[in-house]
Amino acid sequence: MKEPSFLRQWQVASVIRDMDGFTIGEGVDVAYLVLEADYVVRKVLRDRGKLFRYEYSQSTGRWRNQNTELGKRLLQCLRANFRLAETTYPRHCFSPYFELLAKELSRTTKLYFLTCGPDTYFHFNEFVEQLRAAARATGFKKVMASQKRMVRENLKSLQRYIDDLFDQYSKLLVVRVDLRYSKEYRESCEGHEVSPEHVRKCFNDFMHHFERQFPAKVGYAWKLEYGPILGYHYHFLVFFNGHEVREDETLGHMVGQRWAEKAEGGSFWNCNIDKERYTKQGSLGIGMVRYNDDELRRNLERAASYLVKIDDYVRLKLPEGWKAFSHGVHRTSEQKRGRPRSFKQELAFRVNRLKKPSLG
């Protein structure tokens, strides 16, 4: 299975960069567990056959395993520590497929005590049928439909927003800053954690002043996340008019500084100082991006789509009425800036993107 961008991004998000070096977070193993369980359960539900067999071999005179490859992968998932995901990310909902497997596994204890033999594989196949039956339940289908609809609508909205910005500006200076709280401040809070109410207030104050202090800004998008190491933090994308400003690293630092000034205990990581690493990975989508640069635009959309697509696997639980993702409202009153593009050029780009979707 090709490693999705979710796993790469979640691993990167588990690395704390500071002046003292790098610290690897514990979220990496959990990310793989969620991803693998999601993939395996999807395949199990589409499959209709038996995954486990224990057969007698006439040639060797012994009983031996004849499990399918999918059965072997399911066994690995069943041996995993599902409690680790719940304890590492207590404020999150996971993939409905992951949740389904965890729930059905918690309802049976006999799988933990089985030893090799014909009866073992009967019970494993029985569990598979139990899993499939639970997935056919109306409640599960409603959860799946609701989550797919939310992710799909957010993806379309974000892609349309970026397209609209490029329709108006022939080049955008894209800055990404991760807004968070310092370790010292978090440890000084009750329970060693910043309250979500305080986080929300800080971000609202920051956005109120941000609108006025960066007049060259033409758009933004953000995602609120929570991790066991960083606590609450925002991934913040800012789009500037590329005809009015340059120096994206400096602008990224200025955005981060405004957050640090408005948020008590606030700290930040300016992703634009790390463009060389993204370039080597072939994933650079920040800095100056021109409307007709297919590669940079595609990478930009991949980076932006992470703000939405992570909800396929891990979603932050928030009080009713709160948002974990949002973007600006496009205004078309300003005159289009930059060299006019031809309809043929823009059409070619959009047709090419449909052939090779970047937001999947």
Can you describe what's shown?
- With 360 residues, this protein is α+β, with helices and mostly antiparallel strands.
- The chain has 2 domains: 10-136, no CATH class; 149-355.
- Helix content is 50%, strand content 19%.
- It has helices at 5-13, 27-46, 69-78, 82-88, 96-106, 118-135, 138-168, 183-188, 196-213, 248-262, 275-281, 294-309, 343-355; strands at 15-18, 21-24, 54-57, 62-65, 92-94, 171-181, 217-227, 231-241, 266-270, 287-290, 314-316, 325-327.
- Helix 1 runs antiparallel to helix 2, helix 2 packs across helix 3 (69-78) and helix 9 (196-213) crosses helix 10.
- It starts with a helix and ends in a 5-residue tail after the last helix.
Produce the secondary structure layout:
Elements: H1 5-13, E1 15-18, E2 21-24, H2 27-46, E3 54-57, E4 62-65, H3 69-78, H4 82-88, E5 92-94, H5 96-106, H6 118-135, H7 138-168, E6 171-181, H8 183-188, H9 196-213, E7 217-227, E8 231-241, H10 248-262, E9 266-270, H11 275-281, E10 287-290, H12 294-309, E11 314-316, E12 325-327, H13 343-355
Antiparallel strand pairs: 1-2, 3-4, 5-11, 6-8, 6-9, 6-10, 7-8, 7-12
Helix pairs in contact: 1-2, 2-3, 2-4, 2-5, 5-6, 7-12, 9-10
